[in-house]
Amino acid sequence: MTFLAAFHSALRALNKVVGGACGAIAIVIVAVMALALSASAATRFTTGIGYDWLIELPPMLTPWLVFPLMGPLYKSGSHITVDVIGTYLSSGAKRALRMLLAVIVVGASAVFATAASEAVALFMRLGQVVELEIKFPIWWLYFAFPTGFTILALFAVEQFLADAIGAEPERASP
After folding, report:
1. Is 71:47 a contact under the CB 8 Å cutoff?
2. Is 148 exposed, middle or buried (0-12, 13-18, 19+ CB in 10 A)?
3. Across the strands, what pairs with 130?
């Protein structure tokens, strides 16, 4: 087994764990969002008084739902794609195009993760907090951005290596 094949195998195993964790977290977040909105509606209906944090919780959890799932969606082919071009390309050209796209995704992910990390560091230094009934640091919200783009880069590197060594792509379910 070559070094690239061994590295690809290890990265595939890591990404399987990361993708499973992202999926499990997404399920929990969607459940919390639904429960928060239902609880808010129930308390307003029964008592006439609502809690602001129940209404604000779903939008605050949305970055943690969306950004970490970019990598698993990319791997499964469920992320934004253009299907028309592939019908006109040979299998070798498709592989080359996937490799080029993986390089672009890794580069863009690195830029976005770096910028997002700087924003998180800024919010940490500023010490800003969300001013609702429950106070927590605002950087927790923004930390989803570098986390998600780092996960996306891991999955794009896996895709690149799979195409580079000619491995059959493993499609993850998002």
Report:
1. no
2. buried
3. 136
